[in-house]
Write a structure and sequence with these properties.
- The chain is built from five helices and four strands.
- The protein has 122 residues and is of the alpha+beta class.
- Helix 3 packs across helix 4.
- The protein is globular.
Length: 122
């Protein structure tokens, strides 16, 4: 174990510490609140099709961070952080349009999004 640690080099080189340099930059100006948006897609393929539609104009306005993970059952879990409720609402309309365009409205209804306001954001 000691030899392994010695080969890693100084702590600043640990990959887990490098994320601090790559944190997304928050938009300039005061952000009055952040909204955390939890949702999902039925599969990675569906996620990629939906993303192609909702991101056709580029990164959605007001989006700070977007993460997508594939679960063991094949569903995709999505966690987003948004600047405001208004940004979430605007994106939600576009998202529901993408689900409808792909014939996935039943899937969207089965997994409604959860929207929370965090009490702490670093």
């Amino acid at each position: 174990m000691r030899r392994w640690l010695e080969n890693l080099g100084p702590p600043a080189e640990f990959p887990s510490m490098q994320h601090q340099q790559r944190r997304p930059q928050l938009p300039e100006g005061e952000i009055k609140m952040a909204i955390v948006f939890f949702t999902g897609a039925p599969s990675r393929d569906a996620y990629e099709q939906i993303s192609a539609i909702v991101e056709s104009d580029g990164k959605p306005e007001g989006l700070i961070v977007h993460t997508a993970t594939e679960q063991a059952d094949g569903m995709v879990r999505i966690v987003d952080v948004w600047e405001s409720q208004e940004a979430v609402d605007a994106f939600g309309q576009k998202l529901m349009g993408a689900f409808a365009q792909l014939g996935l409205t039943d899937e969207a209804a089965a997994h409604p999004p959860e929207v929370l306001q965090p009490f702490r954001v670093l």
